[in-house]
Amino acid sequence: QVQLVESGGGLVQPGGSLRLSCAASGSIFSMNAMGWYRQAPGKQRELVASVSRGGSTNYAASVEGRFTISRDNAKITVYLQMNSLKPEDTAVYYCYCNAVTGFSSGIYWGQGTQVTVSS
Average pLDDT by consecutive 10-residue portion of the chain (119 residues)? Predict the structure, then answer.
Protein backbone atom coordinates (compact mmCIF):
# COMPACT_ATOMS: atom_id res chain seq x y z
CA GLN A 1 0.00 0.00 0.00
CA VAL A 2 0.94 3.63 -0.49
CA GLN A 3 0.31 6.43 1.98
CA LEU A 4 0.25 10.10 1.03
CA VAL A 5 0.60 12.77 3.72
CA GLU A 6 -0.19 16.35 2.76
CA SER A 7 0.74 19.56 4.52
CA GLY A 8 0.80 23.29 3.94
CA GLY A 9 -2.82 24.29 3.59
CA GLY A 10 -4.41 27.15 5.48
CA LEU A 11 -5.95 30.59 5.30
CA VAL A 12 -4.34 33.27 3.15
CA GLN A 13 -5.37 36.68 1.86
CA PRO A 14 -5.95 37.28 -1.84
CA GLY A 15 -2.65 37.81 -3.59
CA GLY A 16 -0.82 35.70 -1.05
CA SER A 17 1.11 32.47 -1.40
CA LEU A 18 1.04 28.96 0.01
CA ARG A 19 3.15 25.89 -0.58
CA LEU A 20 1.62 22.44 -0.38
CA SER A 21 3.69 19.31 0.17
CA CYS A 22 2.77 15.67 -0.24
CA ALA A 23 5.07 12.87 0.84
CA ALA A 24 4.54 9.29 -0.29
CA SER A 25 5.56 6.22 1.65
CA GLY A 26 4.94 2.49 1.63
CA SER A 27 5.83 -0.44 -0.59
CA ILE A 28 6.67 1.65 -3.64
CA PHE A 29 8.61 0.01 -6.44
CA SER A 30 8.50 3.08 -8.67
CA MET A 31 6.54 6.30 -8.89
CA ASN A 32 5.00 7.58 -12.08
CA ALA A 33 2.93 10.76 -12.24
CA MET A 34 2.18 12.81 -9.14
CA GLY A 35 -0.05 15.81 -8.82
CA TRP A 36 -2.87 17.73 -7.26
CA TYR A 37 -6.61 17.92 -7.67
CA ARG A 38 -8.95 20.29 -5.89
CA GLN A 39 -12.63 20.33 -5.04
CA ALA A 40 -14.58 23.42 -4.11
CA PRO A 41 -17.97 23.22 -2.38
CA GLY A 42 -20.67 22.22 -4.83
CA LYS A 43 -18.19 21.61 -7.64
CA GLN A 44 -16.57 18.58 -9.18
CA ARG A 45 -13.01 17.62 -8.39
CA GLU A 46 -10.67 19.12 -10.99
CA LEU A 47 -7.05 18.57 -11.93
CA VAL A 48 -4.83 21.44 -10.82
CA ALA A 49 -1.41 20.24 -11.90
CA SER A 50 0.58 17.10 -12.53
CA VAL A 51 4.23 16.19 -13.00
CA SER A 52 5.60 13.08 -14.67
CA ARG A 53 8.48 11.01 -13.39
CA GLY A 54 10.68 12.78 -15.91
CA GLY A 55 9.56 16.22 -14.81
CA SER A 56 7.06 17.16 -17.52
CA THR A 57 4.31 19.33 -16.08
CA ASN A 58 0.69 20.01 -16.88
CA TYR A 59 -1.52 22.76 -15.45
CA ALA A 60 -5.15 23.74 -15.44
CA ALA A 61 -5.68 26.91 -17.44
CA SER A 62 -7.01 28.66 -14.35
CA VAL A 63 -3.70 28.30 -12.47
CA GLU A 64 -1.20 28.54 -15.32
CA GLY A 65 1.42 31.15 -14.52
CA ARG A 66 0.47 31.32 -10.83
CA PHE A 67 1.08 27.77 -9.58
CA THR A 68 4.23 25.71 -9.93
CA ILE A 69 4.40 21.98 -9.39
CA SER A 70 7.64 20.16 -8.65
CA ARG A 71 8.79 16.86 -7.24
CA ASP A 72 11.72 15.39 -5.38
CA ASN A 73 12.10 11.79 -6.54
CA ALA A 74 14.59 10.95 -3.78
CA LYS A 75 12.06 12.01 -1.13
CA ILE A 76 9.04 10.79 -3.16
CA THR A 77 7.45 14.16 -2.52
CA VAL A 78 5.46 16.50 -4.71
CA TYR A 79 5.07 20.22 -4.08
CA LEU A 80 2.64 22.86 -5.25
CA GLN A 81 3.77 26.46 -4.96
CA MET A 82 0.71 28.68 -5.20
CA ASN A 83 1.22 32.40 -5.81
CA SER A 84 -1.19 35.26 -6.50
CA LEU A 85 -3.96 33.31 -4.86
CA LYS A 86 -7.55 34.24 -5.62
CA PRO A 87 -10.76 33.56 -3.68
CA GLU A 88 -11.76 31.11 -6.42
CA ASP A 89 -8.75 28.98 -5.50
CA THR A 90 -10.50 28.13 -2.24
CA ALA A 91 -10.96 24.36 -2.14
CA VAL A 92 -9.79 21.14 -0.58
CA TYR A 93 -6.61 20.13 -2.36
CA TYR A 94 -5.90 16.43 -2.83
CA CYS A 95 -2.55 14.95 -3.68
CA TYR A 96 -2.46 11.85 -5.87
CA CYS A 97 0.13 9.55 -7.32
CA ASN A 98 0.39 6.70 -9.79
CA ALA A 99 2.61 4.22 -8.03
CA VAL A 100 3.91 0.79 -8.89
CA THR A 101 3.85 -1.61 -5.96
CA GLY A 102 4.94 -5.22 -6.36
CA PHE A 103 3.55 -6.28 -9.74
CA SER A 104 0.71 -3.78 -10.09
CA SER A 105 0.15 -0.06 -10.39
CA GLY A 106 -2.59 2.12 -9.04
CA ILE A 107 -3.77 5.59 -8.15
CA TYR A 108 -3.50 6.66 -4.55
CA TRP A 109 -4.92 9.73 -2.82
CA GLY A 110 -4.06 11.91 0.13
CA GLN A 111 -6.57 12.91 2.75
CA GLY A 112 -6.93 16.46 1.46
CA THR A 113 -5.84 19.81 2.83
CA GLN A 114 -8.02 22.90 3.00
CA VAL A 115 -6.91 26.08 1.23
CA THR A 116 -8.98 29.18 1.95
CA VAL A 117 -8.31 32.46 0.19
CA SER A 118 -10.18 35.27 1.90
CA SER A 119 -9.68 38.76 3.27
Answer: 95 98 94 96 96 96 98 96 98 97 90 97
